[in-house]
Design a protein that fits this description.
There is one protein chain. By secondary structure, the chain is an alpha+beta fold. It has one domain: Alpha-Beta Plaits (2-Layer Sandwich). It has 2 helices and 4 strands, in the order βαββαβ. A 4-stranded antiparallel β-sheet has the order 2-3-1-4, covered by helices on one side. Helix 1 crosses helix 2.
Length: 66
């Protein structure tokens, strides 16, 4: 299952790399797609772990409810 987060404080390539690394550590092998312009992160797997990983990396994810 995929979950989409908006991450309003993800503003640059360094932010993207940090978020991607945090998700890779929390959810090894999970598919991650980041759209820096839209400030969205789409991640496969455990949404709670993904949200926690993004928060621990210093960002403020908000789940997008479809």
């Amino acid at each position: 299952m995929n979950t989409i987060f908006t991450v309003p404080d993800m503003t640059c390539g360094h932010c993207e790399k940090t978020v991607r690394g945090a998700l890779a550590e929390a959810l090894p092998g999970a598919a991650v797609a980041i759209d820096l312009t839209a400030k969205t992160v789409t991640v496969e797997g455990d949404a709670g772990r993904a949200e926690e990983a993004i928060r621990e990396a210093g960002y403020s994810p908000e789940r997008v409810v479809a």
